[in-house]
Amino acid sequence: MATEEKKAARGKRRGKQSIAYERPVYINASASIGGKKEGEGPLAELIDMIGEDDLFGCNTWEEAESSLQKDAVYLAMGKAGLDPKEIQYLFAGDLLGQSIATSFGIMTYEIPLFGLYGACSTCGESLSLGSMAIDGGFASNVVCVTSSHFASAEKEFRNPLEYGSQRPLSATWTVTGSGAFVLGREPGKHVRAAITGITTGKIVDYGLKDSMNMGCCMAPAACNVVYQNLIDFGRQPSDYDQIITGDLGCIGQRALVDLTAEKGYDISGNVLDCGMQIYDPETQDTHAGGSGCGCAAVTLSSYILKQLEEKKWKRVLFIPTGALLSKTSFNEGKTVPGIAHGVVIESV
Question: Which residue, of 161, 184, 207, is where some domain finishes?
Fold first, then answer.
């Protein structure tokens, strides 16, 4: 690497886990799709498209989830005024084995694909890698998309719906939905916000084995990203209008607040969780809140970006969180490690 390139790389690095972009990467458009339950929640009016039923006209739950991604990408590109030939890369993933919701959903676009798996943190991972590709000069436009589906996730990780298993109060409800984001080097006509930095998370394992309490399993990883972001950027929690986690729910959020307090930071006054925003705990039986790849993605597109567009918020730290378990690891008695990825998003 040439000396000037080395200096440029060092200039973008911030501390151990973060990058600050010298010029912003723009979120030029986004789209969100939700299922029937999401259409009965508090964000319903902000979601672009709501399904009349959770099969979305398909024969299987997995096909339905694929259709979520396909339609979300189509809507987002349409809002940005771009066609597939103008998109250099897709950064996409889901919760299913071999990411079949992604591969079957978006292959017809014939856009070069980076398939990702970060569990429910995949939205943050895709935005991080997509913005890095643009900042590095490797692309002018990319699309980041992810999805989840309650029924396909239950079949993948727990039991088919027909089994009718009882859910503890610590459990979260996998969101049926998809969010797609068009990132660009230059601002579009209707730019929504800008990514100005990222903090890449690491796997954190506190030895918890309860897959029905994933909020607490993921909270230590979220704490690591919050703490490292503040250290790397030299900021305080008050420098963000909101610190927004993806899928902790009400129980995991309390654990996050306690863990960050142990590290000397009080985030209790400006912490928000997507899983607590997408459902109404008073009228919808979702226990601890929402989760799944679609949880953070749908909430970001429908609600968070709207607050930034309207200048109600100027800067947020967006941290989707994921639990890195599988049917195999769970059946073998393994722990549930967590991962989280932080994205600094600012109003334009």
Answer: 184
